[in-house]
Design goal:
The protein is an alpha/beta fold. It has helices at 22-29, 66-76, 96-104, 120-125, 142-153, 201-219, 221-230, and strands spanning 3-9, 33-39, 52-53, 63-64, 84-93, 109-112, 129-132, 186-187, 190-191. It folds into 2 domains: 3-153, SPOUT methyltransferase, trefoil knot domain (Alpha/beta knot, 3-Layer(aba) Sandwich), CATH 3.40.1280.10; 186-230, no CATH class.
Amino acid sequence: MTWRATVLTLFPAMFPGPLGVSLAGRALASGVWALEARDIRDSATDRHRSVDDTPAGGGPGMVLRADVLAAAIDAADPVPGRPRLVMSPRGRPLTQARVAELAAGPGPLIVCGRFEGIDQRVIDARGLEEVSIGDYVLSGGEIAAFALIDACVRLLPGVMGKLDSSTEESFSAGLLEYPQYTRPQIFEGRPIPETLISGDHAKVGAWRQAEAEALTRARRPDLWGARSVSRPAANAPAKGESQKTPKDKTDG
């Protein structure tokens, strides 16, 4: 089956936007994946196509109505089974591991919120998974949806040129990616590191690993800490092996 992303938005004309160019655009044109942008207003029931109302309890702004959004979700995904996501700054942070899971599935339904947010009852009733792309607030969920879809599409078979491209980049092994270089060999007095032009693949691999670890320690101590916890200690016994205590010299 073709991987398919369905986006519920108040601004369907924003799509495909950046997803229609470069790798994602070529894959979309060739049918590797499909994109459907649906207007939430099509599920409104009044002549003004109203989709929002004032917050219960008072406060500024407007809130997307539960009944209208629920109808839009039901029309777009009548047989539940696909991941149902809503882009939200209060959601769980999007990780490369979660992206890989989504890319391996049928493709998600993504709700793009606007205004002050979405009525919590539709999030609960339709099982929406709240997903965040960072600790900041956007005007709506569309830009976040672009980021999520692009991250998934580039992992689909046939989208990227080389199979190794997605396995050696940031987050794939719990590390940030090592620095990259290309010609010219010397740029404004700065040469390419000697190891990378040595032709010794073992040394190149070791250099890249060391650089990736150093960058991760310096820039993302959270990732480095999680990696350290998940990796067994170097001297820990293998699974099923008992911890042996050296014999005392008096034991003969």
